[in-house]
Amino acid sequence: MNVKLRKQEFPSVGEVVYQAVLTNGMKLVVIPKHEYQEVYGIITTRFGSVDTMFTDYQGEVYNYPAGIAHFLEHKLFEDSQGKDILQKFSIMGAESNAFTGYTRTSYLFSTTNQNQVKSCLDLLLEIVENLSVTEESIARESEITGQEIDMYKDQPDDRLFYQTLANLYPHTPLAQDIAGSRDSIKLIGIEELKENFNHFYQPANMVLVLVGKIDPEEIFKYLNKKEHFKVDKGVNLVHHKKIALYPVVRTDSMRMEIANPKLAIGLRGKDLVEANEMLRYKTILKILFTMMFGWTSQRFQRLYESGKIDHSLTLEVEVEEAFHFVILTMDVEEPVSLSHALRSAIRNFASDPDVTEEHLDIVKSEMFGDFLHSLNSLDFIATEYNPYLERENLFDIPLILQNIRLKDVLEVGQSFIDNCDMIDFTIFPK
């Protein structure tokens, strides 16, 4: 086991990353930023909303209700006395939060008090070390989460995105809200929470990332000395299931209390992306769709000037080992005709007048500038740094951008678009 810090330099962005595996098996990543007074700590477990069905390495199959990862995230913020751990961070002058995604759950703190960094770090680790739940606390959380689910159902933009995603991946965990449904969370009890906690909240399945004014060697020695996670949970790590590809819902709509129609175009990739190519692949997809639909494109300017779209147009690109998709959302005047036009443009991307060498350089420069600006935010670095990418790194993005040529964009575009399933979803005013 690697018990020493390994230093990796990224001269293109002036960043240095230190990595090691602690004696308990947890991966540690430290990114010093001594010009800042703040420290961000984020611990991530490879357990997200899609992990409702999995197999351990002894072959036993497990199946759980939708929303259990999100539910467990909320319960871990309660200590053994049922008190909110957020208040403990507040007492130390720190901020704390947590979030659940499709494939990961993360817990974080930030503080400007150098004297409290280690105390905050210990408290962060205590969150993911111990689970204290009762039937009463589960019932209370079920009602709170149910209200959260209802609230998001009333948000048109959320409904637009998540229903499009559900229609891309019907009959899979991606068709469910990350928080689950009122029906699914009623099925979550003490045993379900404990089993998932024991499977996924193990040191070998987690990564701790620290960014800011921090000494890598000092914190490395401190964490090894503290010996968190002394209790062996006695379970095997799991084999994550691939997302099944059932027939998509090609066109769908609903009505809500809105002023103007909302349109989404969704594309589902079929071929799995190699783990060591995910960041590059995602970057190229972002470039391609930005070239075609971003504000620098002729298409966007033409549609905007004619009043057919506005600045609400957004692009979401997700690339994971088990799935990848692209979703465009926008407020529109004529959703039916515009959907047809946009889907036709996507299919014919290779001959699109916006997909040129000159436009590629413009988009790359814009993305490079946005990325460099983002590096001024410790929050961005802490939350966007993906420690599960073995051969790619957040700080590789400038070199990735630099080396992308038009032929790369066309090759990835052909691989993705020619084999994808494409759908549309519209919300009409009532």
UniProtKB/TrEMBL annotation:
Peptidase M16 N-terminal domain sequence ranges: 65-180
Location of the Peptidase M16 C-terminal domain: 190-366
GO molecular function: metal ion binding
Signal peptide: none
InterPro entries: Metalloenz_LuxS/M16, MPP/UQCRC_Complex, Pept_M16_N, Peptidase_M16_C
Record-linked PANTHER family: METALLOPROTEASE, ZINC-DEPENDENT PROTEASE
Official protein name in the record: Zinc-dependent peptidase
